[in-house]
Amino acid sequence: MNAATELAVAYIEAWNETDAVQRRSLIEKAFTRDVSYVDPIMNGDGHDGVDALIAGVHQRFPGFRFKLMDGVDGHADYLRFSWELGPEGTEAPIQGTDFAVVEAGRLARITGFLDRVPAE
Amino acid sequence: MNAATELAVAYIEAWNETDAVQRRSLIEKAFTRDVSYVDPIMNGDGHDGVDALIAGVHQRFPGFRFKLMDGVDGHADYLRFSWELGPEGTEAPIQGTDFAVVEAGRLARITGFLDRVPAE
After folding, report:
1. Fewest CB atoms less than 10 Å from the CB: which of A49, A67, A113, B111?
2. Does the pLDDT of residue B1 top 90, yes or no?
3. Domains of chain B by start residue, with CATH
4. pLDDT band at residue A84, thresholds of 50, 70 and 90?
C-alpha cells in the first residue's frame, strides 16, 4: 500500500470501530490533533469532535460498515477517496467522496461529499 | 443556476479564455486575490499564478477547451465539480475533478485531481 491508501484505510478503520477505546486510538493515529471535518450534514473539530461524529453515525445506522472503494488518489499532501456505507453483504445505500489535506502523515482537513443517498 | 454552478462556470470560462485582457478580468471575478491552486502536475498562487497556469495549458494544448461536466456539487463554502479537456467535437482525452474552498463568493483554494489522462 502507498501512503495515500494507508491513510484512507486508517480513516475507514476509525469510522468502523465501535469500541470507544479502540476507536480513540485509531482516531489519534489517523487524524491530527486539530483536525477539522465537514460534510453536507455534519461537522466536527479535533479528536473529540471526530469521535462524536463517528459515534453518531453508529447510533443512526447500527450495523452499517464503511468500505473503502477502489481508486484512492493522492498527490503531494492532498488525498481523495470514495467509500460506501451500508449493512454488510448488501449493496450499500450510501456512497461518498472525501477530500483531505494531510499534515505530517495524518489527516488535517477533511471535506466530504455525498455521491449516493437513499431515496426519500 | 445556483451559486455553486455559477462559480464552476466562471472557473471554466477563465480557463477557456485565450485573450489575455479578458482572461485577467474573468480570473479576478472567479478567484480571490490570494487564491492557491494545486493539482498533480502544477501549482500557482494569486491571480498572476493562475493566469500563468492557464496560459501554459493553452500553449501545451492549443485549441483544447474545458467543458464543465454534470453534477456540480456544493455545501457551505465547499465545492466540487468535474471537467473535461480536449479538442472541440471529440471525446475529451483528459478529465479531472476539482475541489474548492469558497471565500466571499470566489474560489480561494482549489485542489485538482485527474480522472482520465491519455495513455502514454
Report:
1. A67
2. no
3. 3-116 (3.10.450.50)
4. very high
Chain A contact probe: residue of B113, B116, B117 with most A CBs at under 10 A: B113
The predicted complex's ipTM stands at 0.91
Contact B113 A78 (CB under 8 A): yes
Q: Which of A80, A111, A113 sits opposite B113 (nearest CB)?
A: A80
Q: pLDDT tens, B4-14? A: 999 999 999 99
| Rounded distance between C-alpha atoms, residue A39 and residue B64, angstroms | 34
Which residues have a Cβ under 8 Å from the Cβ of B119 and sit 6 or more positions away? none
Instruction: Check A75 against B99: CB less than 8 A apart.
Output: no
**Dihedral sign, CA of A85, A91, A93, A96?**
positive
Amino acid at B60: R
Pairing mode of beta strands A106-116, A31-38: parallel
Q: How many C-beta neighbours within 10 Å does residue A68 have?
A: 17
